[in-house]
Inverse folding.
């Protein structure tokens, strides 16, 4: 199995240096990954390095807690798009979802999607903090609001992607949206299991190790 186009080659650690981000981009070009995923401060740097290539620049919004006001997420998104982001991974307002403030959750995603314009939007629902019912509801709200993908995790909370959650998300969204698995994907076996369960994208910082392990 060729994994390259499944991967968002990721570096979201707060102390990531300019040199590390440039190396991330060079690796993404070498392996022809779908995207690099970086913090907002590094968007312009990654966009310049990847200019003219098929590798997209993905930027995280409301990261990692999802607790920023909607207007802040919208502004972050607008700035990221101006800086060259071609994909946006936004953290859903988990507290509002827990409150069953569904209109608020849906409206926020709608406003961020509007700020994206033609840029692809993935909504991170942080599955480790949700019940199965809440996971399903988060996926439904995301699709209703126009999101292009739902994503399992930030990788910064109490857990990452599981095969069970990916399968649940795929069942819920069907063909209406993509599913991205992220957090804890560190070997070939796990990556293959996520894809088999329904993931269209995989977010990980262990990308090179996984891809190299597939070369026979």
């Amino acid at each position: 199995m060729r994994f390259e186009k499944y991967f968002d080659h990721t570096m979201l650690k707060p102390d990531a240096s300019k040199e590390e981000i440039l190396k991330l981009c060079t690796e993404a070009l070498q392996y022809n990954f779908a995207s690099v995923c970086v913090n907002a401060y590094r968007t312009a740097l990654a966009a310049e390095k990847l200019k003219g290539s098929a590798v997209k620049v993905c930027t995280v919004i409301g990261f990692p807690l999802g607790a920023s006001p909607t207007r802040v997420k919208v502004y972050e998104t607008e700035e990221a798009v101006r800086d060259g982001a071609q994909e946006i991974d936004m953290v859903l307002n988990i507290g509002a979802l827990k409150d069953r403030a569904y209109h608020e959750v849906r409206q926020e995603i709608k406003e961020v999607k509007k700020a994206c314009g033609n840029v692809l939007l993935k909504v991170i629902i942080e599955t480790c903090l949700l019940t199965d019912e809440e996971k399903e509801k988060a996926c439904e709200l995301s699709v209703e609001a126009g999101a292009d993908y739902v994503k399992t995790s930030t990788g910064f909370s109490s857990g990452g992607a599981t095969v069970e959650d990916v399968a649940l998300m795929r069942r819920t969204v069907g063909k209406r949206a993509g599913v991205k698995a992220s957090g804890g994907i560190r070997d070939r076996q796990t990556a293959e299991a996520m894809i088999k369960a329904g993931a269209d994208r995989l977010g990980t910082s262990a990308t090179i190790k996984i891809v190299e392990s597939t070369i026979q």
The two ends are 11 Å apart (CA to CA). The longest strand covers residues 56-61. The first helix runs from residue 18 to 31.
